[in-house]
Amino acid sequence: MEDMLFYDRMQFAFTITFHYLFPQLTMGLSLIVVYFKGKYLYSEIEKYNDAAKFWMKIFALNFAMGVVTGIPMEFQFGTNWAKFSELTGGIIGQTLAMEGMFSFFLESSFLGLFIFGEKLLGHKLHFVTGFLVFLGSWASGYLIIATHSWMQHPVGYEILENGRFVLNNFSALFSNPWLLPSYFHNQLASVITASFVVAAIGAFYILNNKHSEFGKLFVKTGVGFGLVSSILVAFPTGDLVAKNVVKHQPVTFAAMEGIFETEEGGSEIVLIGQPNMLEQKLDNKIAVPNILSFLTYQDWNAEIKGLNEFDKSTHPTNIPGLYYAYHIMVGLGTIFIGLMLLAAVQLFRKKLYTTKWILWALMFMLPFPYIANTTGWYTAELGRQPWLVYNLLRTADGASPNVSAGNTLFTLLGFIGLYLLLGLLFLMLAGKIINKGPQLNNTH
């Protein structure tokens, strides 16, 4: 049973991790494409329109990969997590169905019009189609986060005698206090990914003296969006998400921060340390006294409960993994703010495009927002364990009872091989688009 559950979780973790490499860029990039198109309508400077069309090519490629890698996610609910689907389908089925029927349909329909319909529609309607693509992608994210939020903090439900969950308050599903902070935190994180991708490609063009005019535009745009989103993802959205965890999942918060024992007189914030599960402490830690209490409760001496205050059966099942995922996310987020702030200062001083080490840094940082987004989701999912629906349905009770560990391992290896090929195909196609670059059209 333990082997079966382990492989079920590993398969879902691998497929959803690979899948989310693509939606995070499409959601963030849709906003930047709309910005470029809107800037063109306002200024009638053709390079903005060409920039919008160039990045929509990357968007379309990402969207296609997201669709292909997203399909197996649906099937796993029926194959590996049949009991979970049976018990909670009356609730999560509604949000997932709305995501597929409305948001995905809106996004995919108007994506085609944006790519192929500019001459037919004219620039104003073309902008509208781009905005609807953006609206569809962000609505899709909203409905997925609504599903996730219900699993983290279930509301508006009742449990029947047969153990099934049914929704008795539809509005509660969308007024869940977990939803909006998590949604905006996630969407801003996707904007960070898109900003770093745009800035990295722009830096690549400048450093290689290739498409330099677009390179400068991309760096300027990426730095602008990246600085704002990096700050907002930390405060207020990240702060609100953390306070939700403190309020509704205090044992998870203790594990995230590495608090094994309740501290008197205020809790320190740990910058570096390694969880020692045998001795229930952090080794080699570097910490700042009382800061965590102030950030959490605006009180320097507020008490934050340690893991020792909670029954071990409620502890997250992988405390080191949760701790490291959270600290990697926070650490990278801090670096993002610092780099984008430095780049913005150089941009203001009109020295950014000639400051090669910053351009190299922007290129080098391209994969790190993906890592930050991934570890952010790992923090949320590892923090909810050992529950599928927090405090109501354990992960072990949601797995399909008749799927063997061997079958799941076999399909997991198949997914790894298939997704490796898909990843190589994506890099090859994206590389072609980037090497060709946008083409400046001087006609109106």
What does it look like?
InterPro entries: Cyt-d_ubiquinol_oxidase_su_1. It is a multi-pass membrane protein. The chain crosses the membrane at residues 12-34, 54-71, 91-115, 127-145, 183-205, 217-235, 323-345, 357-380, 409-430. The protein is mainly alpha-helical and 444 residues long. The chain has a domain at 187-402. 71% of the residues lie in helices and 6% in strands. It is built from 16 helices and six strands. The strands form three sheets. Strands 1-2 form a two-stranded antiparallel ribbon. The protein has a two-stranded antiparallel ribbon with strand order 3-4. Helix 1 (2-20) packs parallel to helix 16, helix 2 (23-43) runs antiparallel to helix 6 (123-152) and helix 8 (179-207) packs antiparallel against helix 9. The chain starts with a helix and ends in an 8-residue tail after the last helix.
